[in-house]
Design brief:
The structure is a homodimer of 337-residue chains.
Chain A (H helix, E strand, L loop, with lengths): L6 H14 L5 E5 L1 H9 L10 E5 L10 H6 L5 H10 L5 E4 L3 H12 L9 E7 L5 E5 L9 H19 L5 E5 L10 H11 L5 E6 L11 E3 L2 H21 L4 H6 L2 H18 L10 E4 L4 E4 L6 H17 L1 H17 L1
Parallel strand pairs in A: 1-2, 3-10, 5-8, 6-7, 6-8
Antiparallel strand pairs in A: 4-5, 4-9, 9-10
Helix pairs in contact in A: 1-2, 1-11, 4-5, 6-7, 6-12
Chain lengths: 337, 337
């Protein structure tokens, strides 16, 4: 159990998820010396019976290179959790640990779906109260060729259909202009290919200022761009939401009328924009693998980690990996014929 | 006079700039048939004497490739405006036209400062009521090698010192993690070099979620990342500010108390965040050239275009190009010695 806060966040989150989903069973993979004292606080809850601790020796730290992490991964919580899937003891893995290591180990242990060059990290960005855009890649592949972007488009379409229930989702490529001549070579290459895949409803380029305008159901980019785009948005939203908060001391100094205004303002703002707070849509699918793996923010709090567990449940229920495999086979067979 | 709205925006903006700066003289370069009818509305103003129309035949359209634009640029408003600088008739050029063409023609006609591989687009992002971060590149160079990022860091430092008056500005590289091992090869290379330049106060990597935290005075990135980072921020801010607005009809339906709350809320929000609205900091310096060139947003409105003109005035007053040349020579001589 990695991430910035380890079991102090993930254990309470696991218990909350068990309470929300009565048929859910969870395996907590990590160091018992850290997990057990936190778990002991919840001993009296009956749902603790649906929770099993799988003991491991160590955790992969967040700042080592993926290649090195994989070499020293034996008996780490991340590797053991993934091995529980490959041995049939678990259906999905949720981790707040080192993204590169999770990607590398997932590929090694769970394998990619045939035809997928590299799995991608993806999230469901809420652009309105009901609408969501599937964005990928968010940082698993910081350098992508055009073929990879095309594969991301196919996987994103399946996610949009299966998880969000969108029929014939609109797919776009993130670029720095809307004209065909704009952008990097890999993007222009992917655009050309996507125009010729009838099973994908490709609508062209979208610029980053239209991210929250709901213009596409799937937005495809390389992992570097996806990461900085999403982090920029999160940063702006966090700053704006935090501006609304006052410390207790500051609040006590206000007059009653100002307190009322503050209260209404906060309520209005929270209703309008809290959906854009990273906590509410935490949980990035590592799509393109033969099983479900969800990456949580390293700095996720309890609420955010529960949201990541929910995404894992949803992906298992919708059988996302199988659906991607089938779609890919259909697209490739049409392409070859 | 290009841009999305052409002289309908730029002519009134020019007149406002003349009113704000009593010693300013402006040359309006463009098609007289379009400019003159708009200008005729202001005939009675005395400041119109400080304005000269330089007639040209055509405008470079915003969606043609830079290479082609340059080949057909003879007697276009953009080319003529830049030639007015090289012939000594103007000190700076402000354009809302095709960014790639402006970059290409500026390099061709005005030339880069010795030692600068490629000029960069940069803006001053207001992260607080008084603090600003110089960000570059914003899209002039969508592919950058490590050396170019180092040059951007040097130019950004000079801009921060000269335009913002910051002593020994903190310089950071935009990346997807804070550890040295993270990110693309060019970023890691630039980081290594910057650590060894004593004249630059290099502080390491900054992630996009810290963009508005004021952690650095200069933020360096390739043009693709810079463009999508800034556009993401603009998109989020625009959406939030637009949510605060109601149509006249919607407003009239509200009760007096709700109207009052609305009024206070808008006032509060405007005071807090209007500085982040693109109109207030429009105007990207094309730094690294031997003269001052300012690129305005294509979709800039009057207020935003005035802001771009102000930046040109400021750059001329601070003699930015000369200062960059001197700094670069100092850094290179220290490096060689």
């Amino acid at each position: 159990m990695g991430g910035d806060f380890g079991p102090t966040v993930t254990v309470p989150a696991a218990l909350e998820a068990l309470s929300l989903h009565p048929t859910l069973k969870l395996l907590l993979v990590g160091t018992p010396a850290v997990i057990m004292p936190i778990l002991s606080e919840y001993n009296k809850l009956s749902r603790i019976n649906r929770l099993t601790v799988v003991p491991t020796d160590s955790v992969i730290s967040s700042n080592i290179r993926p290649g090195h992490a994989i070499r020293i991964s034996r008996n780490t919580s991340m590797r053991v959790a993934l091995e529980l899937i490959s041995s049939g003891h678990a259906d999905a893995c949720v981790s707040a640990g080192n993204t590169g290591a999770l990607m590398g180990l997932s590929k090694l242990i769970l394998k990619s779906i045939d035809g997928i060059e590299r799995p991608a990290l993806t999230t469901l960005l809420p652009y309105s109260e009901t609408g969501k855009t599937v964005i990928l890649d968010l940082g698993a592949n910081i350098v992508c060729n055009g073929e990879m972007l095309v594969q991301f488009a196919i996987m994103g379409s399946v996610l949009s259909e299966q998880i969000l229930g969108i029929n014939n989702p609109r797919v776009a490529l993130l670029n720095i202009g809307s004209e065909e001549t704009k952008g990097l070579d890999n993007i222009r290459y992917a655009s050309k290919i996507l125009h010729n895949i009838p099973l994908i409803r490709y609508i062209g380029y979208i610029e980053a200022n239209d991210l929250l305008m709901g213009k596409s159901d799937v937005l495809v980019c390389d992992g570097f761009s996806g990461n900085i785009t999403l982090k920029t948005m999160e940063g702006v939203i966090r700053i704006i939401l935090s501006t609304m908060k006052l410390s207790g001391k500051q609040y006590n100094k206000l007059r009653w009328f100002t307190k009322l205004i503050r209260f209404l303002l906060n309520k209005y703002f929270f209703n309008k924009f809290s959906r854009l707070h990273p906590d509410w849509y935490n949980g990035a699918h590592l799509v393109g693998l033969k099983s479900t793996v969800i990456k949580s923010h390293g700095a996720a709090n309890r609420r955010a980690f529960v949201s990541a567990i929910k995404q894992a449940i949803h992906s298992i229920e919708c059988r996302v990996p199988e659906k991607i495999f089938t779609r890919l086979r259909t697209v490739l067979s049409k392409k070859d014929s």
